[in-house]
Amino acid sequence: MIRVVFFDLDDTLVDTSKLAEMARKNAIENMVRHGLPVDFETAYHELLELINEYGSNFGRHFDYLLRRLDLPNNPKWIAAGVIAYHNTKFAYLKSVKGARKVLLELKKDGFGLGVITDGDPIKQWEKILRLELDEYFDEVFISNDLGVKKPHRKIFEKALRKFNVEPHEALMVGDRLYSDIYGAKQVGMRTVWFKYGKYANRELDYLEYADFAIKSLGEVLEIVRGLNLEEKERADKEVHAD
Amino acid sequence: MIRVVFFDLDDTLVDTSKLAEMARKNAIENMVRHGLPVDFETAYHELLELINEYGSNFGRHFDYLLRRLDLPNNPKWIAAGVIAYHNTKFAYLKSVKGARKVLLELKKDGFGLGVITDGDPIKQWEKILRLELDEYFDEVFISNDLGVKKPHRKIFEKALRKFNVEPHEALMVGDRLYSDIYGAKQVGMRTVWFKYGKYANRELDYLEYADFAIKSLGEVLEIVRGLNLEEKERADKEVHAD
């Protein structure tokens, strides 16, 4: 019997990658508009390379971008980038299509709900609170707080302990076969791979750990209800067999 | 003859202090709303003390606030503070009453216009660009870029050199008697003290360096026009005396 459903955050509940791409493009566009003497394509390509090397949480993308482009440090250009980046992130932060509906239905059905995510805890909470997703969740688990990253067992085990459920009573939904699906399966959870965003066709070496693959979040409902119905029928049969 | 008018930025052109106060109050309010187990007054008072000690550009106000209140680190509360703080700063950033009008009039009259400000260059440019004040100014001078702070002569001398004017051809408008007025007078500029915000009655030891004191930015126009008229009349008299 499934009693708890866990969700990954980025690109599962929140449309992070699409938003980040839009924010970065708008940032470069605004820098060019304010005098950055480089064409959009060159600057955008350089920014993507930089993010690839330094990570997306690096705090100094725009001044490093100027260095890489052999340009002088210019706070006006940097400010133009920062403004457009933040404006985009604030204005266009959205939950993934169908996310609210599925959370609400699961809540009504009495399931425990949790988030299991990597990333900077403050930034993750910012997304959750800005979208008011906190209303739906009993618990939010952020791997950084435990000093690990998914697929490390520690975060999944903590989540199970907190809800006081057995692994087979929990379902994990996430977009990444490695961190979400392999991670959850390791501790014995049921797993739903959400084929969405840039990981929809990656990390396929870990495909065997996915019990289900879905293309829309709404399917989680059918899966959970289906699993619990099967379980119920099996239990009923056992009663009759007695 | 006045040919260039320089303006300080914070609390002269941009309503910085009022905004910061509003943003801090909203931050604490949102933290309390999301479960911070302390009353508003206690938390707000502690935040002000912290800012007093660590400065307003310290990047970790909210997690240090939790430490000072002997509370556990809680990214949800911090995120609640960060969100409300940023939302307020973005939504309520305003230029000081009358600023745009006076800049436009000076521009129409053919005066050179410059900003002379302290502070983090990117943050200062963010305010200028968000308010689209850059349209009015020929030059922006930020003391950090020269490794000094107002009233250091270096920043005022650079501004004069860049506009290629003599000190007596320049007027400095600012809210601080020490950094703006004493600073500008040191190098020989004419000075207008804008009695506004929290410095409206402070640093009075430097009052003697103010040629004029005003309570509304519009008065700058009358002052500049008056000074140039006097000058013209004096020049005319000299011609007649020849």
Give a quick summary of the entry.
Chains A, B: Catalyzes the dephosphorylation of D,L-glyceraldehyde 3-phosphate in vitro. With 242 residues, chain A is α/β, with parallel strands linked by helices.
Note down, in words, how this protein is organized.
- Chain A has 242 residues and is α/β, with parallel strands linked by helices.
- The first copy, chain A, has two domains: 4-15 and 95-241, Rossmann fold; 16-92, DNA polymerase, domain 1.
- Chain A contains nine helices and six strands, in the order E-H-H-H-H-H-E-H-E-H-E-H-E-E-H.
- Chain A has helices spanning 16-33, 40-54, 61-68, 75-92, 99-108, 121-130, 153-163, 177-186, 219-241; strands at residues 4-7, 112-117, 139-142, 170-174, 190-194, 212-214.
- The first copy, chain A, has a six-stranded parallel beta sheet, with helices on both faces.
- In chain A, strand 4 (170-174), helix 8 (177-186) and strand 5 (190-194) form a beta-alpha-beta unit.
- Chain A binds chain B through residues 34, 75-76, 78-80, 82-83, 86-87, 90, 121-126, 128-130, 134, 140, 142, 145, and chain B through 34, 75-76, 78-80, 82-83, 86-87, 90, 121-126, 128-130, 134, 140, 142, 145.
